[in-house]
Amino acid sequence: MPPAPPPRSPLSFAAVDLGASSGRAMVGTAGPGVLELREAHRFPNRPVRVGGTLHWDVLGLYRGVLDGLREAGRAAPGGRLASVGVDSWAVDYGLLDASGALLGNPVHYRDGRTAGAAGRAAAVLPPEELYAATGLQYQPFNTLHQLVAARGTPALAAARRLLLIPDLVAYWLTGEAGTELTNASTTQLVDPRTGDWARPVAKAFGVDLSLFPPLRRPGDPAGELLGEVLEECGLAGPVPVTAVGSHDTASAVAGVPAQSGRAFAYIATGTWSLAGVELEAPVLTEQSRAANFTNELGVDGTVRYLRNIMGLWLLQECLRSWEAEGLAPDLAVLLREAAKAPALRSVVDAGDPAFLAPGRMPARIAEACRRTGLPVPRDPAETVRCVLDSLALAHRRAVADAQRLSGREVEVVHIVGGGARNELLCRLTADACGLPVVAGPAEAAAFGSVLVQARAAGAVRGDLAALRSLLRATHPLRHHEPMGDRAAWRRAEAAVCG
């Protein structure tokens, strides 16, 4: 049966994108030769510490989602939404009882409850065997480690459903439960070769996979907005919900405006920097595990082969510390001053777990410089320059390692996400990598969500390359050519790597 003809006019789609510090509802309009995006609503994401445990305020987030869908409906031409998609950060989850009620606010991945869980996990299954089965990099907060830490707790004992954060939001919107695959691949319970559960791993750790609802893939239907949601948001139904790359990085990589036939690396920048290459199959070698690369699943059966880097979290935490001290620095001014500061005077390992927890970031950066014998930043501008030089250096190492370990040589680096707006970071990354950098779009996750929804609705057609071609043709991008002293970056890398 031939595919249905595309609609005569573009359709509107809501992309709900939940980040670690804020959430947003974006409205995308897509059709043949048309791709537009606007922000309908933005709301804060403020974790809450209660009884010594750091939680997500997931009900507050859901309130923001409902407000965002109301504003998205108002912003959409004709007031109609053709679909809704939801993405968020990875690894965290909510537990539901037999009635579908939430058993407490989800625990934040930065909470300290997983301390020691990796060691207990290694006693069950050696790290090299776990990597060979799941291809997931070591992170202390991986879902598997969270479940190891939660073993024996009343909430886990009472749970009848486990929903990752975007699946939880989609469940509340539709009443239908599913587990979207790109995000499930971050749990360390999925086999990246098959795109199905790694059942021997789950059995070894005593994880009941029946807690997870059936797997969905990007583009699959995920239900329709409930009547109460339509009424709350002032929307005319029916409004379907479409599974997108519900791990925000999966949507962001789908939103990389790569040119067909040109091998590329990507860096999805925000609170984290996720730097790597897109592959057709996972890399499960011991060398890959030792380099702490991960194999997460992407849109259209792709593999996101990447390394997690601490990202702009370092800068965000510095700003919070200075504000708490009453300095209230202006970021634009700081960036201008940082651009004039001495290059590579002070660098740190941006992937160091010592920077994972919040608080005292400028002091911890200074302490790291002292440990390696490098000059301590003398003021906020030099601290910002240290952060950005260090991030660019981490990008350099990740891009080089991704090529070496995968055998995929690249010609260009695409920077998407919030860091694409940071011109100094983009320029430094081009210099550090010795490769051209294409910066933008900043809202790549929302674009990736809209493109997957639009294709599912028949508003656009084609494979992932065709979707990216539409994005590239409709949006301006910034280009940065590598400049500067390559030897200086090699010396800085040697200083950080010992």
From TrEMBL:
GO terms for cellular component: cytosol. One of its GO terms (biological process) is rhamnose catabolic process. One of its GO terms (molecular function) is rhamnulokinase activity. InterPro entries: ATPase_NBD (IPR043129), FGGY_C (IPR018485), FGGY_N (IPR018484), Rhamnulokinase (IPR013449). Gene3D superfamilies: 3.30.420.40. It holds the Pfam family FGGY_C. Residues 15-254 form the Carbohydrate kinase FGGY N-terminal domain. SUPFAM superfamilies: Actin-like ATPase domain. Belongs to the FGGY kinase family. This is Rhamnulokinase. The lineage of its organism: Bacteria, Bacillati, Actinomycetota, Actinomycetes, Kitasatosporales.
